[in-house]
Amino acid sequence: MIPSRRNFLQSLGVSMAGISLAHETIASGSKPPKVVKPAADEQVLFVGDNIAVANTEYGKVRGFVLRGIHQFLGIPYGADTSGKNRFMPPQKPTPWSDVRPALWWGNSAPQIMEKRYANPYASFVDHWNYDDVSEDCLKLNVWTPALDSQKRPVVVWLHGGGFTNGNGIEQDGYHGENLSRLGNIVFCSLNHRLGPLGYTHLKAAGGHPASGNVGNLDMVAALEWVRNNIANFGGDPNNVTIIGQSGGGAKVTTLMNMPSAKGLFHKAVALSGSSLSGVNKEYAEKLGLKVMEEAGLKPGEIEKLQQIPWREYIDIANRAVEKTADEAKRLNLTRGGYSPVADGATLKEGLFFTDASHFSADIPMIICSTFHEFSPSRTDAALEKISLTEVKEKLKPRFGDKSGEIVEAYVKNFPKARPIEIWALIMSNRKNAVAAADAKANQRKAPVYVAWFGWQPPLFDNRMRAFHCDDICFWFYNTDLMLTHTGGGKRPRALSEKMAKSFLNFVKTGNPNGGGLPNWKPYSVKNGETMVLDDTSMLVNDPDREARKALV
Questions:
Q1: Domains and CATH numbers, the chain
Q2: What is the pTM of this model?
Q3: Whole-angstrom Cα distance, residue 85 to residue 75?
């Protein structure tokens, strides 16, 4: 089966009558920029004592130059978080006197690594990159065209993994070299504390009041490092865009609601993930007390908790989650566990984006999700022939007796969609993305732009569909690096060029228009303007609104 070069939305039978439709436009100079190849196939990697040396407030670092882009990997922005620094706000790194090598990635934050590669399909598709794991993980990476005073826009990437897993270079598509070259910008990525070591709220147990948010405070510290140092790498600290995907998208929205992050970034992008509130403080405090109990410690014995080996501590903390499951249900939490806590001090209590005078109201934003965040048949070809009746049964564990009504609503909205596509669309619904867009638009200050990524790769017999994570390499102009997401070649590269240039325009000006996509109007609650990203992209008004109503 050859993938359709048309828009996937149209292939599902969505009527365009009465819908605002902007036709595809091609920006001038639409051909992908050519990487300049040295004559006679000359040297492209340069590293040495006096090559790519930059100053930071803590000491000099030495990176390397690859294909004309300066790269610095594993620069410390905070101290080791083990021992007395565990569960505490990040501390400044110890300055160094020699030139520090910045030639390799920093350690990943502590997380369960056993069986990380057990699923060969996931390992093949996402091409996971993991290295050493330790509590000395507060490191960041920088890609820049030059070490000069040009003051380029800065992009800061926040990885996914649901506040529990991941790192700044988890996929090859996270690399900043191509986007830095294409847009003449500075690209940064970072590691920070995750899971129980980043988000155990121990205030009620005698711990630091901010212990439930130290993972996010790490990100604030990284942004402070950018503010204080990025000019030495050719960047502009007054033009910083944060972007994250999945859990990283939720990192974006939580940072937009942390007082300490005010002024540290100026634009925001959330891909396939967002949050509109922090974890319930009452639950988080009870979970922290349960952690102490599970560790055999009394409230106040935080110093002993800090000495437990991190791998053992994660198991203790996870057992505590299991034993507070009833408390999570009582408070109607969708899930328990470890993520930013709405403590009212480091993170806003209540719903985000409700105050038009809040600093988040002045930050332009892009919110994007994919058509098929979850594709049930990706590794099970038999599901391609599933019936609508079977889909309704499959959805009952999640939606109960409403599953039939929901399926029929999606069939009506997408009349040509096959049952397997209906299932994928429902499981990947845009409810949370639209809720975040509505809240941001209602602040009525800075614009929010909404996108829906529908491009499908010709891999696994076309069963991958527009899956969770697939759009990242398109925004970052890395489709030829992530062959297992795209297949490579001119087809994905053509869309990637338009998406990356539109993203770069947003990074530079707060407006994505002019990059080759159709005219992209800001989102409004009334019309739900949505840029559908595909081989043929188009702007439509809330294309799944009628189907989504059934999810309420």
A1: 8-24+372-462+472-551 (3.40.50.1820), 46-198+214-274 (3.40.50.1820)
A2: 0.93
A3: 19
